[in-house]
Amino acid sequence: MAEQAPALDTAVDAAGSRSRVAGALTVLRRGSSAGSAGGVAYVVYVVALLAAVYGFPYGRTIFASLGSDQVERLARDPLTIVLVAVGYLGLLLVALRGARITGPVAPPPVWTRHVVAAPVDRALALRRWWWLALGGVVGTGLVLALFLGLSLWSAGVTGPLGAALCALVGALAGLLVARVWLTGQALVEPDLAGQSAWRPAGQLRRLSVTSLLAQAERTTLVAGGALLGQSSVLREQLVRSPRAGRARLRPGRGIVLRRDLLAVRRGTGWVVPSLLLLVAGWVLARTVLDDLPLLLPVGAVLLHLGVSGWSLGLRAQADRSGAPPLLGWSAEGEALRHQALPALAGVLLPTLAAAAVLVIGGSPGGRAVDGVSWAGALLLAAALVPVCLAAVTWAAFRSPPAIQAVPPRSMIIMLILWWLGPMLLVVAVAGVAWWWGGGSLAATSVIAAGLGGGLLLLVLVTVVGPGRATILGG
Question: Count of domains in the chain?
Fold first, then answer.
């Protein structure tokens, strides 16, 4: 197998490289959709469809209920600006680090072995794959920002020029994400003499045959794990390798809690889940203090993601489901013990964030904060933790999605909904609790905690317990 070829003099054989690459692309696309823009266009279409069906109505309702003055005040709030900036910087960091696993330039292995490894200009051989990825990322950013702008326009917050400006900003943000993604893929390769480390052409020439083939193998495993609903495969391929440490588990009280904490430290880490929980606490506190019930689903989603990040012990139990229990407990008992760590994190961190909001900021509208609002801001996140635990447990132990031998394109939407099912469950329970409680904080908290506890018990009995064998068998 050919390794990274030496840099070619692009001025010498540019015409020959173009003709060879064009001929190879013609052969590759006979009976195959590889290298076609149709796949990228379909992905952007799915994103646009989901944004139109779910994002636009929800965004319009939120902005209309807030009003233009409140939206403008929130947009100028320094904390909001910091959160948006930190979120986008986090997205850039994910693109930079994620490129070590799967980069934007991902040609099929047959193209890598027979064209990229050939004596042609590597930038020309990989340019089409880079353009496809660039179009997909920029198109996704443009579509999402466009529907955000349309939501603002439909709610009367801005005009058509504002919607167009949102779309432009989204496209530019997608362009920067794509460039950082390509840079991260090129940085893992050794320097190439005479080639720029920042220009796309120079970065494409740095990519080696070995790394492209390894990336194709990882992409296949990730796609298979997504189709089969195997989160363990996705974690193995997408998350960093477990770090060795000197910590040892000693027999005694709290061994499951200590083991789960060690798994989080050596696995995905505790920083990102903790930040998600802190932001969830801030959003839920603002929901109560500013009387913005439409922000409740946003806080519930963030809370669910944070709790899920602290639940690696529970997912590890689900991965070895069917094996003899390690400590002699029943499956339900062990799953219940594994929920101690995510429950503690889901209660303590959002409560700290809500307390900080109450002490530092209070209500931005200047109205007084009474004792009921204080208690509601501090306890709302804790009331939603049981339903988050139920959703995480269901996600870990549920049966995989049903697939077909030749899956149609419409299955992509069903697969996305399958992966988003636990999150949608949390949002639904939060909305039902608020509606059933009539807007009362005390009633909402009690109903949310009750529904969450009932769902958790139902999942433990019917999915984790004896019913799991029946579900998997079906």
Answer: 2
